[in-house]
Amino acid sequence: MSTTIVTARRAFDDSFTIERALATGAYEGLKKALSMTPEAVCAEVDAASLLGRGGAGFPAGRKWSMLRKNPTTYLVINGDESEPATFKDHYLIERDPHQLVEGVIIAAYALQVTQAFIFIRGEFALGLERVTQAINEAYAHGALGRNIFGSGFSLDLVVHPGAGAYICGEETALLESLEGKRGFPRIKPPFFPAAIGLYGEPTVVNNVETVSNLPWIVSNGGAAFAALGEGRSTGTRLFALSGDVERPGVFEVEMVKSTFRDLIERPELGGGVRGGKAVKAIIPGGVSAPWFFPEDLDTPLGQDEVAAKNSMLGSGSIVVMDETRCMVRAAWRITKFFSRESCGQCTPCREGSGWLERVLYRLEHGGGRMEDVDLLLDLCDNIAPGLTWPPQQTTICVLGPSIPSSIHSAISRFREEFIAHVHDGGCRHGR
Amino acid sequence: MADDATPVTIRFTLDGREVEANKGEMLIAAAERSGTYIPRFCYHPRMEPVGVCRMCLVEVEGPRGTTLMPSCYIAPSDGMVVRTDSEKVKKAQDGVLEFLLANHPLDCPVCDKGGECPLQDQTLAYGPGESRFIEEKRHFEKPVPISDLVLLDRERCIQCSRCTRFAAEVAGEAQIAFSGRGDLVEVAPFPTEPFTSHFSGNTVQICPVGALTAKPYRFAARPWDLDQAESTCTGCSVGCRVAVQSSQDRLTRVLGVDGEVSHGWLCDKGRFGFEAVTGAHDADSEPGRVTTPMLKKNGELVPVTWSEALSAAAAALSTAGSAVGVIGGAQFTNEGAYAWVKLAKGIIGTDSVDAQLDDGLPASLVFGLPAATILDLDTANAVLTITGDLSEELPVLFLRLREAAHRGTPIVQIHQHPDSVTSIAHSALAVRSGDTDAVVRMLCGDDVQAAQLRNHPEGLSFDPAALEAAKAALPHGGKGLVVIVGRENLAEDGTLTAAAAKRIAGAFPEATFLVGLRRANVRGALDLGLTPGFLPGRVTLAEGQSRYAGTWATTPSATGLSTVEQLRALATGAAGAPSVLVLLGSDPLTDLPDGALAAAGLAKATTTIVVSGHHTATTAQADIVLPVTVANERTGTTTNVEGRVSVLAPAVAAPGQAWSDWTIATALADALGADLGLETVDAFAAEIAALAPSHRGLSAQLLAGASGDGIIIPVGSSPIHGAQPLDPTAFPGVKAVPARPLGTEQASLPEGAPASGGAALLAAIPEAVSVPGPDGYALRLTVQRRLYDGGATVTNSPSLAPLVDGATVKVHPSALDRLGVASGTVVRLRSAAAHLDLPAISDKTVIKGTAVLSFNHATADHAGNAAASLIDASAVVTDVRMETR
């Protein structure tokens, strides 16, 4: 197996304890960072060309550099991982909270921020408990609070549990929620919280996995990280593999060096499609992403490589659907999720998601009409004009334009399946 | 606001033509000015844009092709290329409209908004002809009351957030908010906090669908059946611009119209108080209007003809000679006020004429202080307030002040009890009644006063740090300082406030003042001489004698008696007491702070003539009652708190035999064998403009050319603004009001018109007032006005009457502890003269050593104005002891 960075403590059942963490080098990266200048730490991250692991894949170093011009006031870690079939941050939060905390402190030091927040999905009860404990232990260990390890640098870190809304994973909605308000995404511009963030102050928002890479990058150097992977996609990435595979789970894979097929089929990874069936469709990067099909299986697991095929690696969530799966049902389930999670702010998303869900429900459960198939596409077009990728949008945030992906993919490829649903008065398979 | 001061023009391309925008202006507004109306729902020109409805999407060319962007949220930049009419834009707008209609019930035939609905109108103009939505629409229980006045139909709601934004952003009371997610998002009040805003009606007006409806208008009319008069609200002296709508000679609705005074907002009393004029549409009871002249015969008031009533009044006045007192007139039109002044001062020859009921401030102060305008709040460096709770007394002025605070203008407040202004204040100085002037001295740098305040047995009433912060916030010399001064406490002598205001004017010579007197046209009444010592035009008797000699039969030679002086002279039988009292729309038995004095004085008058639109406590005691027209029945002008004259237009005919204020004066002069020489409201207006220096140059023509906001007098002292066309989506329901040409007209000051009030008049205001020291056992009383009180407007409006609270006394918890009683217990308040039993409420924001009471609220055993029973007009401050019963 290739290099592991963020899952290095995978072998230990007690990986979340400070004892195990310290025994395996935790906070050594931090100590090294503190011995460097903040600029030097930033330079290492730049050298690593670490791309954000939250979904958009924005270079972390560039995000930070927007802040370097004006003094950053807050660092916020986005741990509100709530998309269906996305569970790689969940893994890091529960299994290696000290690595996360250490990464936050390194980021805060690099940005010279003295107040940081970790916003964790409220349903991660165990994760919340473990991160909270890790933070308390870090304070006791001298890694948090005043004068960290005698360096003169101080940082306070607060855990904030989410209240159950997917939309709060959108960074501006997260900031609103953190401020105690309703989690409505903020209208852009400003496009980045770096301009106006938490409490109106410049803020950096980073993903859990992004900062979890920092201890390794500082310890081993940015160049070592950049040596992994290929092109813009450096280092390793966590993939949450689920669906019809023999070994669903979280896997750390060097970027670009493996393909979707490798991930699904290799025995130490996905172990193949369950029951030896054939792949029908793949969700390559979370339910917002346009689907992949069997001919895309040899696409390398890299950001630009997936983007070149008009989809996205996104949040690293890969769902495999085998030949027996009903595509109408899949589209309906995903749309139902978005419909429930639309914040209700923008008309196209609020009303469109509910409408699409109801039409898909009728198709799947009986009552579908032939014109519904084109109706679905046209409604999608009214949310994401042109149905292109990356999507155009008629809404404030990208939740709305994410809705059409699955519907458009399913209809484009399996239109006859939708028509069969109309003829059959519902789904033949019932699943 | 430096950006506004130096407009920068931006040129961009809109649908292929070059268009200009002001810097900072949003695309939707710039397009509208240039004649391209972009459809919208959530956008409102008086609120921050949020870009949520997505109806105003336009196509903007960018480096990576064109993108759809909400035109309410992007400011044009030089060279920007925008299309509002492309296929892509049309499809997006069609799509948004179809989405909005998906769950909308389309019950237009039974919806109050039907016929004036932005959703309906824009669907017609932009939407697809048919809906493809065949699913079950969402369902909610409906309607649900979200306040005492407002009902919500959640099925009709399109989640534009105008109402929630108004509550949070404009009113500062985020008592309604969204709950739920997706297409089940709903507007809701908080389970624990009721929606009690004084401004709730605005949410109904700006709702772009029929989701929010107001109790007084629900199912009252169809909009196309309504007649409209554009007028000025006379609920208080702010002078909000209104569209008054009626059907079959009954008032149905009052809507705010955008303008520089009120920005289109109204308070609920101004909006719903129309019920006191022609009644509520769904109530059986009629408002208590006086509809016929009445005469006391055998101890009972009976309806008589006008000629009989006027003869009786003339007979009484002839007998009295000049021993006549005139009280009130602050609710009249300017023309009516002038007519009565001409009758009283020019024919009867009395100067004992007073529009104020010991609840205002001296005319010399009002005229003598350099005047500020409401627009000055927008550019002020700082604002200092010493006045009653603005959200209770002059509600929309509070909204305008809140805007200033929101922009970062520091508000310094001196107050006797925390109120709405405290919540937006940069620094607030709490003072006990009587100590205002001492704190003003400290603010002006005189530290000698500090010792006296510190020596109070209950300690200093404010944080010394707040004093330093306040000092730092006030600009040196008062440049850009606007001072709002009014009567915060009706249980203390108004001279205290006047002296403090004079001191501020001395210490901050460049400061300007808004004198926050509350009654609708009190400013006009004072300007036109309904106050002792002055003739119309803010001139003293001596100055004015020659000016009026040619036109008037006479002018008084000596300054007459104020309201309190008249009543006291009557009560004590002093020489010079009037024998006949003429009450012009005033109700001293309810409104005079010294209730006992009002009763004693009125009882001694030989004849009491009351000109009134409503039955009141005072009309019940009168000898002659003359019915007068009230708000929305009158033609003429009114003057607001800034000295701005604006037009009053009649929306309905007066009931029964009510006559207009000036007609009654003319007829009474006639009955006295004299002649006012004027027979139309225009003739009165013309004579005012000809004779009163403050009104020189004011003409009907000039008023018609200005926006409905009117003109600040003296003409030429402030720019005269035009009005833009109203955005029908921002002001649904308001029928087209004439748009006046844009731009600013700077009229020049006519010859002979005073540039500002004569500072010399301030000489009449004492430098200081001596205040008795604190009595360690007593609580010093602060009595404050509330929006919903026992006055005629509220009590005669079925929708508002239930909102009146019972009187309570608020005290610091320590005062209740000392007494050993719990909050809510009925206690006895004892003043030098009287006692009052009422519940005591524990409130830790009350300054120790004081008690706070609301004016014109009743107790269980004191109907009417309970607080007035404790107040002695001759005392500088009022001390009460609190006892268990």
Concise synopsis of the structure shown:
Helix content of chain A is 43%, strand content 12%. Chain A has 431 residues and is of the alpha/beta class.
Keywords:
heterodimer, A: Rossmann fold, Ubiquitin-like (UB roll), de novo design (two linked rop proteins), 3 domains, four-stranded parallel sheet, globular, B: 885 residues, alpha/beta, Rossmann fold, Dimethylsulfoxide Reductase, domain 2
What does the model show?
The complex is a heterodimer of chains A (431) and B (885). Helix content of chain A is 43%, strand content 12%. By secondary structure, chain A is of the alpha/beta class. In chain A, a hairpin with a 5-residue loop joins strand 7 and strand 8. The longest helix of chain A has 26 residues, at 399-424. The mean pLDDT of chain A is 95. Chain B has 29 helices and 38 strands. Chain B has a 7-stranded mixed β-sheet. In chain B, strands 33-37-34-36-35-38 form a 6-stranded mixed beta barrel. Chain B has a 5-stranded mixed β-sheet with strand order 2-1-5-3-4, sandwiched between helices. In chain B, helix 3 (87-102) packs across helix 4 (118-126). Chain B is globular and about 90 Å long. Mean pLDDT of chain B is 94; it is low at 1-5. At the A-B interface, helix 14, helix 15 and helix 16 of A face strand 4 and helix 3 of B.
